[in-house]
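Hi everyone, sorry if this is the wrong subforum. Our group has a chain we'd like a structural model of before ordering constructs, and none of us has done structure prediction before. Sequence below.
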Amino acid sequence: MPNRWTRLLLLLLLGLMLAACRREPAPVEGAPQEPVAAVEALAAALEAGDVRRYSELSLPPAQRAEQAALWRRQMAATPPIAAEQVQRFNELMALLTAPDAEARLWAEAEPRLAAIQQQVGPKWSMGVTMLSGFAKTAIAADPTLSEAEQTHAAGVVDAVAGWAGDPALLTDPARAQAAIAIAVRTARELDLPTLDAARALEYDAMLDKAGIAFRGAKSIAAAFGIDVQAALSQVQAEVVELDPSGDRAVVRVRYPLLGQQVEFLQPMVRIDGGWYREDAVNALAEALAAEAESAADATADAPAPALAP
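Answer:
Right subforum, don't worry. Here is the predicted structure as tokens:
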């Protein structure tokens, strides 16, 4: 899966754990409810673990078709993956789908957890703080992320750092065994024994597989005490900004998670009567423009054809 898709799917999951403090714009009285309904539909797709549906709700049909075509072109143009990476992927999937996968994985994990439990101390908190600082610096410096994505990710780092401050959550054997069982079940459901099989997927098939992985990730998070499903079921949305044209709105999204009130602002834009994520629309436009610019540069750099004698 391309790096951007991988990053966006990770942000999708991490965004559900955002705990950033934001300003408090007042709701717009009399604002149309369509942007709110669109955001609620996005949350419902995530609650169902339906990544394809989330994709369909993020872009208008014409733009989504362009996104699928762009993805196919990018996949075709991707250089061959290093043999070592292919081998690692294939070996990992073979391990996760083996008949004795759970027993083998637990045999490897149990002594590591025991070692971590013995080493837990002041250095644990210091390590968590350092890693969170590095992560937030990287997020702020990533030009491929929209402002909303950066806000999500930075807030997520703060929330996860607070959650990870208790090492008992991460080293509890029962939780780890449950997570291993979920990972094994998810890998078997994915049914992608080789990297070539993953790269051969069509766009919507890839999203369906991503949905399987996302549902597995939510279940693993639940095993460690992070109830993403409950948070998604309690999403609330309201329009806090509305352009005079009526074609752009900013929706405040709220939900409870880990004992905190999570919120972020989601810009929405109306296209052909429907409301869609503005960051998704802008990201596609930028990607298409970059592709066109790259093609123009390649044409300009191509050698001129030789003249016939």
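For your construct planning: The beta strands are 236-242, 248-257, 260-271, 274-277. The first helix runs from residue 3 to 15.
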